[in-house]
Amino acid sequence: MVALVWQTVVMLGVMPARLFPGVDRVVATFGRLVGNGVLPTHALATLARLAVGFALGAIVGVTLGIVMGRSRWAEDVLLPLVSVGNPIPGLAYAPLFVIWFGLGNLPAVLLVGFAAAFPVAVNTWTGVRAVKPIWIRSAIAMGAGERQIFRKVVLPGALPAVMTGLRLGLARAWRVLVAVEMLTSVPLGLGWLIFGAREFLATDVMLAGIAVIGLVGLGLEKLVFEPLERLTVVRWGMLAR
Amino acid sequence: MRHIEIAKVGYEYAGTAGPVTALREVTVDVATSEFLCLVGRSGCGKTTLLNLVAGFLSPTRGEIRISGRIVTGHGLDRGVVFQDFAQLFPWRTAQRNVEFGLEMRGAGAAERTETARRFLRLVDLERFAGAYPHELSGGMQQRVAIARALAYNPAVLLMDEPFAALDALTRDEMQRLLVDVWAETRKTVLYVTHNVAEAVYLADRVIVLSPHPGTVVADVRVALPRPRDPLSLAFLEYQRTIVGHLGGRG
Question: Under a CB-based contact definition with an 8 Å cutoff, are residues B134 and B93 in contact?
């Protein structure tokens, strides 16, 4: 449908063909760039950065969320910081990170982790706080100690919210990563590919890059999160689907 | 033999308008393998008393002993079943829920599996061992909860209106099942309910509590053979007696 409208606009000649390539050309370019390995190389570089950055953000976010959920003191100190930081777009910090960490991979990865950590922390905190008191009571009645309660009740009980946090965190990481690649002059990456293509008015390359970004995002959702949820929270009936 | 001794127990808590006395001078002895029901209107402190015996709360006066030892906290000598279906862990199958207490006690995997199976069979749910709680009906979930509370072999079973949220037909079924389970395991049972017919059906003895503050107003021994017929005259007579003690109109 979108392709159809797109193609009509192209054929009407509202925009110069060079700036507004037809669907056929985008598809052809996509095929060519996948065939000669350009797109996969850039996509892999971006994915590697995403994996490292997101892992960092997830670990920090989950840890912070648990600490905030378990300790009143940590909640008082950290929650205001996290709550204020959460709605700020990660990209706003990009220039700062470039000044602090230079150009290239390091600031990109760090910024991705930084941006992802906020929703993960907030949701983990919510999840830990939402663990039902009756589960804790039952566990205590059956002789569970502090550590057992934490490992066998609080962690699985908080999992639905943690999953929500990870999903939001990943989406945020993905968005900030593609943008930050345009700013930190990484040698390879989808963001960089799109940004670089601008110099040559290669709109077909840009659109092909954008298509890959969409596909990867969809793939992460369908191939990572949905199966994970089906195995856990959906199976447990803890998430309405 | 006296198994649970509740001696002159009082419980006070801080309310919005100063301290509230929930229980005053409550003295009840429960014999080994006895089925005791605590009956009373809402706010009579029956659940508080159960929580004191469970060790979730500490009495502000008097003391509670189980097998001669003063209760200071929770312990593996007591199993607890709550009213709320949500007491089961949704991330564990019925089988793994029942295994929880054994796990805490450090039992080996083979023993856990075998014991949990046995108790699921006791509540007639062996076929559903692999089901998650959300796949079970309310009555089934409460049966899993009973199996779970019994599996690590506590001497005392504490039950807080476990069937109150079930429909009437399921409740009747569950009461019959509970009597069978009790007859087979010979636990000492402390059972809280506001349902007089349920108390007469289940209990060896019914303790009637009156509210504000909670005190014992009657101690009725139900001398009817089991299984009991809720429509018999003798049964209705017991109900009438207890309702009389509750100060109700019937």
Answer: no
